[in-house]
Automatic annotation (TrEMBL):
It holds the Pfam family F420_oxidored. It comes from Malus baccata. Its EC number is 1.5.1.2. The keyword Amino-acid biosynthesis applies. This is Pyrroline-5-carboxylate reductase.
Length: 275
């Protein structure tokens, strides 16, 4: 049975799970104009969570069953340990007409498809900078999801940052890099600020400079199209201050440590997904 195309001009989107990540995605969708808030619905038993969504116009329904019934696209944004129970509970409502999406870390498409009873499923791995519209999200399409389905979901997650499509076999490595990577960068920002303090800067100034410097460097890497090695060379004058700092980083094995961190996190993700 072929998937019924989602009506891109009029479709309704539902979130099963109304936590912080769902809120970030919903806010991004509304802010970017991908969908008006009156075409987005969710449910949560907690009043403060409901108010967060109501504050920007999202419909609050009385139970998850209603969210699924009213939506053409359903995003499962619940914790990984409960996603199986939630999908199985809603299975009678999850027809092939509905495009299903999961952002539950470590939960594989083959399991999601089995629990739902069909394969029109897309797995997405966003990361925490979704809260400020700067997410890195990777999509993998299930067997029954069409290219049009993938494009629609890429547009939804494009409202909170950048998106890539990739085979699911890469998702443990994605977890090690973009999923866990923000923590490595926060450590780098903290360390740069500490270095500034050690060199005599006031703490507040050092932290502001460190944060903005990382943001600016990342923006250059994203927007210039230059290889990061070239960007590094552009700021590294012969016998200057920057090469002295780079030399210290190389002596400390800076690049090798970051590479090892990504690989270690990817291996841990692999252990989790094997269960």
């Amino acid at each position: 049975m072929e998937a019924v195309p989602i009506p891109t001009e009029t479709y309704k989107l539902g979130f099963v799970g109304a936590g912080k990540m769902a809120e970030s995605i919903a806010r991004g969708i509304v802010r970017s104009g991908v969908l008006p808030p009156n075409r987005i619905a969710t449910f949560h038993p907690d009043a403060s969570r409901r108010q967060s969504f109501e504050s920007f116009g999202v419909h609050l329904l009385s139970k998850n069953d209603d969210v699924v019934e009213e939506s053409d696209v359903v995003i499962f944004s619940v914790k990984p340990q409960v996603v199986k129970d939630v999908v199985l509970q809603l299975r009678p409502l999850l027809s092939r007409k509905k495009l299903l999406v999961s952002i539950a870390a470590g939960v594989k498409l083959k399991d999601l498809q089995e629990w739902a009873g069909h394969s029109r499923f897309i797995r997405v791995m966003p990361n925490t900078p979704s809260a400020v519209g700067a997410a890195a999200s990777v999509l993998s399409l299930g067997g029954g999801a069409t290219e049009q389905d993938g494009d629609l979901i890429a547009k939804v997650f494009g409202s909170i940052g950048k998106t890539w499509k990739a085979d699911e076999k890469y998702f443990d490595a994605v977890t090690g890099l973009s999923g866990s990577g923000p923590a490595y960068i926060y450590l780098a920002i903290e360390a740069l600020a500490d270095g500034g303090v050690a060199a005599g800067l006031p703490r507040e100034l050092a932290l502001g400079l460190a944060s903005q410097t990382v943001f600016g460097a990342a923006s250059m890497a994203c927007h210039t199209g230059k290889h990061p090695g070239q960007l590094k060379d552009d700021v590294t004058s012969p016998g200057g201050t920057t090469i002295a700092g780079v030399h210290e980083l190389e002596k400390g094995g800076f690049r090798g440590i970051l590479m090892n961190a990504v690989v270690a996190a990817a291996k841990r993700s692999q252990e989790f997904s094997k269960g």
